[in-house]
Amino acid sequence: MFAFTYVFLAALALSVLLQVWLATRNIRHVGEHRDQVPPPFNEKISLQAHQRAADYTVARSRLGRLDTVYEALILLAWTLGGGLEWLDGLWRGLDLGPIATGVGFMVSVLLIASVLELPFSVYRTFVIEQRFGFNRITPGLYAADALKSAALMIIIGAPLMALALWLMSITGPRWWLYVWSLWLGFTLLMMWAYPTWIAPLFNRFEPLADTALRERVEKLLQRCGFKSSGVFVMDGSKRSAHGNAFFGGVGNNKRIVFFDTLIKQLDGEEIEAVLAHELGHFRLHHIRKRIVGLAVASLLGLALLAWLMVQPWFYTSLGLTTPSNYMALMLFMLLAPVFIFLLTPLLSWLSRRHEFQADAFAAQQSNAGILARALVKLYRENASTLTPDPLYSQFFDSHPPAPIRVRHLLGGA
């Protein structure tokens, strides 16, 4: 085997073992604290609700642990197992030309990967979510969502892949700058178009009908200097009982969206506080910073790929015999998560830092106690554990654990 083969195997093994070990820690820690509600919440969350959240977390963590191992085996099958080599041979045999062959190959890999992940997705939805009372989606709607997602990937993704491969073939050694510009422009376009053109393919969005709540929201938007194209309620309940709120889009196409489940779970003051938190991300430029960070990371990644794709060992070390632009792109897409996995704690820390800042902004615009009350309700309704393993939480959690977050809000930090 080649030197990079051992590097790849070592990185994959480290990633899998670390994820499995952390998940095992979390399962044990949550189980050990299952029979007692943490003191800050013992008057607000019943023991029964706390135990339900613990059992839900354990069930999801156990499935996630198996999924981690399964995905690693699939990656090995694609690379050293010869899956990519075999599929590449099939498409080359059709003699369609380099760009059409590349697009067909990449779309095939992504579609097959989606099919291979179906057993875990189905079990998560129709067994775990069903068992804990969250699942609302029917098998027919689930299948329709999957078909729509596949169709969008082909309709939108295939032309994008073709354009990227074309740029790589005509722009010389600096192709990565052109492909990066294409990717960045497409990302911003999708952020603008998603709330109006993509999301309605899956959900129904209706203007917020509650007059009192709408007035409360509009006053908050004015105080925060946030202009939107409307406040909408999404029929999230047709798929899940989980509640949420978000704003999507950029520029003049920003929408405030509440799940209908959230409207039922919280009162007007609490909804205002939750929205103030989301607006905090906007006012504090968190979204802009994340876009810039993603743009810089993608630029560096493409520059690295430009160097890797001219190294013969990049292909041979992973079980491939015929270098190509599309194979280099696919290998990079498959391998990048393995090698950047160790950055997860840093990214999680940055995300939690933004959450604390958005909470502080929300406390200024509404009321810290009301936001804390809303968060406790959401923890209870969504069966979010109050007692994650601290190391697991530091590594993976994008939001602070409930006790820490509420303590910060109420001035106990």
Let me know the largest β-sheet.
4 strands, mixed
Radius of gyration: 23 Å
Uncertain regions: pLDDT < 50 for 5+ in a row?
none
Q: Helix segment count?
A: 16
State which percent range the strand residues make up: under 5%
Query: How many distinct beta strands?
Result: 4
Content-based structural category: mainly alpha
* Main sheet strand line-up: 1-2-4-3
Shape: globular
Q: Which series of helices and strands comes N to C?
A: HHHHHHEHEEEHHHHHHHHH
| First-last Cα distance | 53 Å
> Structurally, how many domains make up the residues?
1
Give average pLDDT, whole number: 93
Helix content: over 70%
Can you tell me about this structure?
There is one protein chain. The protein is mainly alpha-helical and 413 residues long. It has one domain. Helix content is 71%, strand content 4%. The protein contains 16 helices and 4 strands. It has helices spanning 3-32, 47-78, 83-92, 98-131, 139-170, 175-198, 211-224, 260-265, 268-283, 286-308, 312-316, 325-340, 344-365, 368-381, 390-396, 402-409, and strands at 205-207, 231-234, 245-248, 255-259. A hairpin with a 6-residue loop joins strand 3 (245-248) and strand 4 (255-259). Helix 1 (3-32) crosses helix 15 and helix 14 (368-381) packs antiparallel against helix 16 (402-409). The longest helix is centred in the first third of the chain and has 34 residues, at 98-131. It is globular and about 65 Å long.
Condensed summary:
It is built from 16 helices and 4 strands. It is mainly α and 413 residues long.
List keywords for this structure.
413 residues; 16 helices; 4 strands; mainly alpha; 4-stranded mixed beta sheet
